[in-house]
Amino acid sequence: MFTKFSLKDYNFKLLSLVVIAICFGTVLINSADSSFTMRQIIGGVFAIAVILVVSVINYDFICKFYTLIFMGNLVLLALVLLFGVEVNSAKRWIVVGGENGIQFQPSEFAKLFMIIFISVMLGRFRDDDKINSFRCLASFAIASGICLLFIVIEPDLSTTVCLTLILITMLYVAGLSYKIIGLMLLFLIPTAGSFLWYIQRPDQVLLKDYQVARIMQFIYPSQYGQDYSQQNNSIMAIGSGKLTGKGLNTSTIATVKDANFISEQQTDFIFSVIGEELGFIGSVILIAILFLIVLQCLKIARSAKDSKGMLIATGVGCIIGYQSFINIGVATGVLPNTGIPLPFISYGLSSLVSLSAGIGIVLNISIQRRKY
């Protein structure tokens, strides 16, 4: 179950980058809303402990239970729909222990659980040189589709999009042929156009009204921007920080944060706090830290001893990379407004703990990497 290793084989570079990111996030959350600080500190300490413990558990042992992990994931997602707490017309959270109990978001853990399951499944097909077989692609589509369906019903469109990108990337890295990729693009491009046309119809049933409004705001900002100004305020906050920012914990009405122009700034729009208070320099430093974490994951993936290890490390790197891109893209107006946490930075213990468990597995893959 546990991996025997020498300290010289332990990837302290990746561990240090993640710890720095967690500390960075705690400081920013304290500045955004100090009422969340203590919970984030406790969550950060727990997350680091999770990394250290999981990193010494043999990932081969974890992967043995990939079917149970997949079934458990579906059970948790089903429980959300049955007994979840509804907030803003969405059921995404389960509360354990009464009203003041522990609240967690299964869709955050679903990303890691699906990465483990899909990695083992694709790893076996890859080792048998059957990645492009109908059986492999059908198995991948069914397993992914069931999980994504549960998440989109909540509804949690941002997690659905992010997880879809992660799983497709893993399939590509596993060895999907370019011929199949071309055929998929021929199908997906007109489908995307048809989807955009359909959601603008008054009788459409695929998306909630607020989700359609956010997409329309992105496509037609002059027409919808006045009614949905959260992103505009975020852009204004980031721009107001200029080169060096206004400083942490700035408490004047001149700041977008303290003027309450952006709600829940400690979560989905945490990057606006970074831009406003730390400026361009602070924003670049944060992006560099997250980028280096992704690079470390991909480097470990290249040297993994087997296919499933390579795919798990790739998947975890994709979580951090894609979520960072989506979160920052939304905060800067590059992407439509959708809620997704900035890895290790935003307040949200479900995201923090699940990502930390993923980093722990990647560290174990690094310990067992191929020696050249």
Task: Please provide a written account of the structure.
This protein is mainly alpha-helical and 372 residues long. The protein is 66% helix and 3% strand. It is built from 14 helices and three strands. The chain has helices at residues 12-32, 37-54, 59-63, 66-83, 106-127, 134-153, 157-174, 178-199, 209-219, 221-224, 230-240, 270-302, 307-331, 349-367, and strands at residues 85-87, 90-96, 102-104. It has a three-stranded antiparallel β-sheet, with helices on one face. A hairpin with a 5-residue loop joins strand 2 (90-96) and strand 3. Helix 4 (66-83) packs antiparallel against helix 5 and helix 5 (106-127) packs antiparallel against helix 6 (134-153). The longest helix has 33 residues, at 270-302. It is globular, with a radius of gyration of 21 Å. The mean pLDDT is 87.
